[in-house]
Input
Amino acid sequence: MNGQIYLRRRSRVLAQPGRAMLPPAYLATLYKELEALGFTLSPALDACLGTWEARPFEVFYKALLKDIREMKGVHHTWRPLYPDFPAQVVRASAAELFLNAVRHYASFGTWRPDETASPRRDLGEAARRAHLRTIDIGTQQDFEQIFTQLAGARSSLSPQDKDDLDWFVRQYGGKVYAWMPAQFVSKENLATLGGALLRAEEPGALPFLEAHLQTATDVLRLAVAWSKGDVSLAEPTKFARMKRPMRRWLIAMMDRCGSVAEDMARRPEVFKRLGEVLHPGEYAKRFPAAAAAFEGVRNGVRPQGFNHHIERQLEMRAIDDALALLPTRPGEFARRLDHVLRVAPQPADVLARFEAVADQASTAVLLQAMVQFRRRGEHTLRSFFPKGETANVFAIEDTRAPCRKARPGRPRPCAKPRCCGALRSFRRSAAAMSTRTCATTSCRSRSARPRRRCARWCAAAVCRCRRATSCASSSGGRTAANARTSTCRRRSSTHATSTWTCLRTTT
Output
């Protein structure tokens, strides 16, 4: 089995050089058999096998061909009903096709139409050799690395990956603890590994899992994996019967979790089925938190958890309270970022808070948020892919309000229309003098800049009603100041007195 896993995943086999001389006919036979299956040997493996004796080579030869035939599906005898498809089906009438199907089904697959397949053109020798997969020689350390990659995978494992992971645990037992990854990103893969360790009754399984299980949902996934169910929790699971020590340990793991009632409220039906197997009432005095959470989910009591408080704060537009709570869960902050930006009066503050904790969110969540903001508003529909059921996608109309763009460092427009009218006149008068340059501190630079850009910065500073130093040109500064003062007085002498007197004209 280890040879099949290594061959399927790395196209390598474990082999050690010998001290004999293998007859050339043995290797030639292996080459011809492998070529028909789409494989060949690497020079290193060829040289290694050439030092073997005949008897060990025969065992290796049979095992290798058996594994490759199972990989390619050649170990089955495939007999199509219409060997000359599609020409044979095109020539037959609808009545003939119907009778052939009825007779074939009625005979349990023994009856077939009396037709033979047309001869097919064989591929050339060069074409076959161009697509051959090379089987190389591997090492035991490289083979063990497969377990590390499977256990530390960042995405959900396929059924074949789960079978390979379970085989490693059954085959090597306690040795797999030395091959564990540095961290487990996917909770589903951790549950799959934990279920395999518990089924193998490995002595070190409980201390290992106690160090990695953090929430009641993690314990739920572990129970599902132990029962060989769907660890993504997309499909219902029939929990297997558990012994008393196993039930007591699972309840103890839930009891030590901080938000066990909130986790159970997210998936009440699954936890109800789990409670029917664990019997938490028997340990109500020993593990009161877990027993109370099971009692609440059985009676339909929903606690006021994290999501409840966030929804209430966003509904009441208490953005400061929401921003104080969301950074404690960076992943949830990333998922709600669009909603918070839509209701926040200062989007720049929201982005600053999120930037401080963005590195703590998972890569998958950050990528989803990035794509969502890049593609937002391009379509009139919003699509949703249920977890584990991507084929059942559904869509709704996109009624979200557009997000306001945050411009850090740029001033907000003044709410006073008279002030804005004076600014427009100021811009017109300053535009007429655009050929002159300015050296002012309000432009944030001592270098010479066009007069029009300088006017924009000064007008923005005045619009925010902040004290600023007026732009005085290196030549004709008094003329520019007189032009601004006269323009403002024409608009409103009262407003000019309250707004423009903060300017100190530099002559």
Notes: Confidence is low (pLDDT under 50) at residues 409-507. Strands lie at 12-14, 39-41, 133-138, 381-384, 394-397, 437-438, 449-450. Residues 485 and 500 are 8 Å apart (CA to CA).
